[in-house]
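Re-run requested by the PI after the first attempt was lost when the workstation crashed. Everything re-entered from the original request form. Ligand of interest: adenosine monophosphate.
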Amino acid sequence: MNLIFLGAPGSGKGTQAEFVSEKKSIPPISTGNMLREAVKNGTPAGLAAKEYMDRGDLVPDETVIGILKERIAKDDAQNGFILDGFPRTVEQAKALEDMGVNIDLAVEIYVPDERICARMGGRRVCDACGASYHLEYKPTAVEGKCDACEGNAVQRVDDKPETVLSRLKTYHEKTAPLRDFYSERGKLKTVEGQEEIADTTRLTFEAIGC
Ligand code: AMP
């Protein structure tokens, strides 16, 4: 099963992608996590991506599509995968089709902008494995430490309020048109993001039928 998670930054799509990944035993593939890793390791793709990410802009398609193509060719992705944060533009969605990738379902996690802005300050991410947390909704067992590994759960540089606004603008301009793209193909389901993560997870599982 090949799934896509759509949603504004901070909608909780990464968290839901992790839950569905456990349930369906297929890997979550987050282009944001891969790009942050590339920046940390100073790879050519990371060097090309950093300035865009710091500003909250999209990284050019050429770089992201290259990274994604390599990732979905790996063995663990052959029985399915969950894309989190890709595609972000109609061009990227068309590139997926051109690669011959069949998407079974695009799940949109919908959260209004006002709630996104209120939530973002509490968001944390593991600097080693990329797992996502929230100070209020999904705290780590030990403050500042990832539950899954030895990493530190830290605030992302691009989660600062000014950058969040710019990322939301980019989302509405460039990514929201993907709703129509997948809806026209009969592949879109929308889940309303709830206050409690577990409630969103229940609705997400229902939408996917798992
Ligand atoms: P995310 O973790 O999905 O919020 O992504 C963090 C940042 O990585 C975004 O603000 C973009 O700068 C970049 N990024 C992640 N995925 C993509 C993508 N599919 N296309 C372009 N830029 C991306």
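Saved to the shared folder this time. The first helix runs from residue 13 to 24.
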